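Supplementary Note 3. Input sequence used for the single-chain structure prediction.
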Amino acid sequence: MSLLYIYRLRAAIRFVIAIKVFEQRGIVMTAGTDTQYITDTQYITDTQYIADTLGMTHIRNITLTLEYDGSAFHGWQSQVNALAVQDAVAGAIARLTDEKNVKLTGASRTDAGVHALGQVANFHTSSNIPADKFSFALNTILPEGVSVIDSRQAPFDFHARYSALGKKYIYRIINRRHPSAVLKDRAWHVPLELDVELMAAAASKLVGEHDFRTFMAAGSPVRSTVRNIWDVSVAQNAAALNCSGDEILVSISGNGFLYNMVRIIIGTLVSIGHRRMPVSRIDDMLSLSLQRKDAGQTAPPHGLYLAEVYYA
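The predicted structure, written as discrete structure tokens, is reproduced below.
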């Protein structure tokens, strides 16, 4: 019996033991999908445990900060019949490291058409590539529409989604009669004039901890609909490409957001800006005396940007 055979046998035994430990701890292993964990704490504990059990002490946790054009992809989350950002980046990592089944976790599962200026993702790897060089290497093989603007090593238990304390979104509106050829897929064209002061007054009422269930898309299963909004601003913007000042920027940050919450808020603010709803409609929505149908429309995805993810 060769030493190589003995080494492989010992490695296989250690792997089986680790999987049994996973099963005993209640982890559900599903082929072809991310491992599902009962609790966030258990996810961190068991990920570290299996690495230790297999003797994989050289495994590192790499975080990426990503910028992407949402119109080029069908959202962040991996899909079978369409190209998602997660698939594009994970595929590039696999190609670069020669590692199969790369598990890439994003801080936010942005919808199709939604852009990102600061999406954060992480993955574990045994590659020897320096952490800060992943950005340069990945950008040489990633498809158009996505770029890694930063890469670094993180603590082993860092999780892009579960470690996040909050997020910031920006929504862009072109408020003029004619659409923009340059910003066609990057801002919502609203031809009728908006009252920015009314929109700002309504937006200020959203700040604080509230039950935002009336600003959530129907049929979204969540444990709690209470969220804490830290800041909301509505401002006219005279950017370099839009010096006439007909772009309106809405910025909103908080500890979490329900499904389509930001886009429903934007649709409601636009209705208020058109004087189709009173500013007090926000109070009624937050008091739960009204329903989702009483809010504004869901704003289109192409005006929305994930701007930043906050961590400790």
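The radius of gyration is 23 Å. The domain at 166-310 is CATH 3.30.70.660 (Alpha-Beta Plaits).
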